[in-house]
Amino acid sequence: MSDTAPSAHLEPEPTPAPSTVLSAQQRLVVTIAILASFVTSLDMSVTNVALPRIAIDLGGGLSTQQWVVDAYLVTLSALMLLAGSIADAYGRVFIMRIGLIGFGIASVAVGLAISPEMMVAARALQGAAGAFLLPSSLALITSRISGPAQGRAIGTWTAATTGAMIVGPLLGGLFTDYLSWRLVFLINIVPIAVTLWLLVRLRGTDDRKRSVRIDWFGGAAAALGLGLAVWALIEQPAHGWGSPIIWVPLGIGAVLLVIFLSWQTRAVAPILPLSLFRVRNFWTGNLATLFIYAALALNGFVVGVYLQNPNGPGLTATLAGLASLPITILMVLLSSQVGALAGRYGPRIFMTVGPILLGVGAWLLLLVSEPFSYWWQVLPSMVVMGLGLSIMVAPLTAAILGAIGPERSGIASAVNNAISRVAGLIVIALLATIVGGALDLRGFHNAALVTGALFIAGAVVSWFGIRNPPRA
């Protein structure tokens, strides 16, 4: 009789759970992606708090302030789809280098602007360069990191880039009050140079698909259509809907956008593959993105500008930027952990609870009144919104990109980023209509009501539309 126990009695070794720990090269990938998208996210948010001072230095009213924001978003949104295809064709690292160099040149032009026209033109150039950075940075993560580690990587990337959007008003306020708003844009050269240096240390070949055809016609139709439509929406309060100055460009823009969508069904290599929207989590996630990021853009613009209103709170640019600091702190503390939890339990509940909290936080801004008190009227909103944003943003990104295979991650990332920017573009263009013509206390309350409703709409779409992927 053998003294060895029968093998049938041996318990099988448990299969170790997939690790979420990032290797050194994976951490380098995440760092590069964060820095590349950091400058674009920062410039989108830093502008809001600097708008009153920019208007004083360069001239212009509310429409000029809208154009400073929307000129950036028009080119960023329209060209991001084209840039996603170019990144797939020529490699994400190569396109990222092009975007970084272009963004640096445009940032210098913005910092040196001497007129509203020069500022708007330079901001448009910035947006064009930024279009090559955002999809390339996230696609770099999804193409080089997989499994549960990808959820943590996306969570870290999201925390940093969204944190840049939130900390931007604080940085813009400090520079505007104590140095110059121009330096906020000129300082972009530092992270751009660091990112270019880190790209040299990145090992592995750049994924390129030389056979990919690029839809130049689609890109031009989308850019012109968006630009004309947004011009009409911004200028409408000054001319009225009956003016041909408004309805002619609006009509042409709408026709171009219809032509663009029709062309995407026939193009050999469409920049907006409509087949992606047959995937449930992709189309519902992007619909939720449309509502949620429209609300975020509206809230960021209105809070940054209204808190500096001399006929209202009358805060300095620095204090207006500090108002959103609780959101930044909560994002940094929680987003990475929530990203890992969403990878384990699925994104649906996070994408529902987060926007609900964001909506409640937006409606808490209805407490703002005269006399003004930040601690009782604004801080509760910032805390609740910080919790909601931390819970929602990483699972939203992971759900959308996780629904599409890594071979199409570039275009999927570009579509999602473009939709989020188009959402901000439209809501800022409609700002005068939303606030009722003036950003006074009543206009601020109107904006808070609309912001909360948009967040809740995103929660409803997520709950009924998103499906958790099967657990391994």
Give an overview of the whole structure.
By secondary structure, this protein is mainly α. The protein has two domains: 391 residues, Growth Hormone, Chain: A, CATH 1.20.1250.20; 52 residues. Helix content is 75%, strand content 0%. The chain contains 19 helices and no strands. The N terminus is likely disordered.
Major β-sheet profile = none
Which value, in Å, is the CA radius of gyration?
23 Å
Average pLDDT: 82
Number of helix segments? 19
Helix content: over 70%
CATH architecture title of the largest domain: Up-down Bundle
- Report the CATH C-level class of the largest domain: Mainly Alpha
Helix and strand succession? HHHHHHHHHHHHHHHHHHH
Topology:
Elements lengths: L23 H35 L3 H29 L1 H20 L4 H15 L3 H11 L3 H31 L2 H6 L2 H13 L14 H24 L4 H21 L15 H27 L10 H6 L2 H21 L2 H17 L9 H4 L1 H24 L6 H21 L1 H5 L5 H25 L7
Helix pairs in contact: 1-2, 1-4, 1-5, 1-6, 1-8, 1-11, 2-3, 2-4, 2-9, 2-17, 3-4, 3-5, 3-8, 5-17, 6-13, 6-16, 9-10, 9-17, 11-16, 11-17, 11-19, 13-16, 14-16, 14-19
Q: Which key phrases capture this entry?
A:
about 475 residues; mainly alpha; Growth Hormone, Chain: A; 2 domains; about 0% strand
What is shown here, in short?
The protein is built from 19 helices and no strands.
